[in-house]
Design brief:
The protein is of the alpha+beta class. The protein contains three helices and ten strands.
Length: about 170
């Protein structure tokens, strides 16, 4: 399978809950954020970075509506992004677009939907803000240091003496 190429295969829509978005869709701001904890000691230079897992992506889809058909499609499709009825729990929605696929974003919840705004002659834009949805998975890891070590003769001598001391202590 070859990687998606926007030049040869432009995709100007998203699929949300299996339904194609109206007009032309622009996906912006999607990312793959990571959470790191920097653990430092008093009087020490440097720190240990502890990976706390992947954060959730927030991104925007702008729908540009140009025709009467786009508006008719918008009025049908917008039920997907409307507020959930009172007393009903909102559910995540499956989303498909090649840019989101590359980042592993497959499910979302709606954060906000703006009013349609006229952005050009005959063009109206609706901005929809999404938050990635992903079930929590326990992942806590401390990365190992790089294999490259500084060539400091004092550090090398301390390391040699430490090894010698540990061998003597083990006897």
């Amino acid at each position: 399978m070859t990687a998606w190429n926007p030049i040869d295969e432009p995709v100007d829509y998203i699929l949300l809950a299996g339904k194609r978005s109206p007009g032309l869709a622009d996906v912006t701001g999607a990312n793959s954020p990571r959470n790191w904890d920097k653990r430092k000691g008093y009087g020490l230079m440097g720190a240990i970075a502890v990976f706390h897992g992947m954060d959730l992506s927030t991104f925007t889809v702008k729908l540009r509506l140009y025709s009467l058909q786009d508006w008719a499609d918008w009025h049908q499709w917008k039920a997907l992004v409307d507020k959930p009825p009172a007393g009903k729990r909102p559910r995540s929605l499956d989303i498909v677009h090649p840019l989101l696929d590359e980042l592993g974003i497959k499910s979302v919840v709606v954060e906000d939907v703006s009013q349609p705004e006229q952005t050009d002659h005959g063009e109206w834009t609706v901005e929809i803000k999404f938050l990635q949805w992903r079930a929590p998975v326990v992942r806590l890891a401390k990365p190992e240091g790089s294999t490259a070590t500084p060539v400091d003769p004092v550090e090398q001598e301390i390391g040699r003496l430490t090894d010698q001391f540990q061998r003597l202590a083990a006897q």
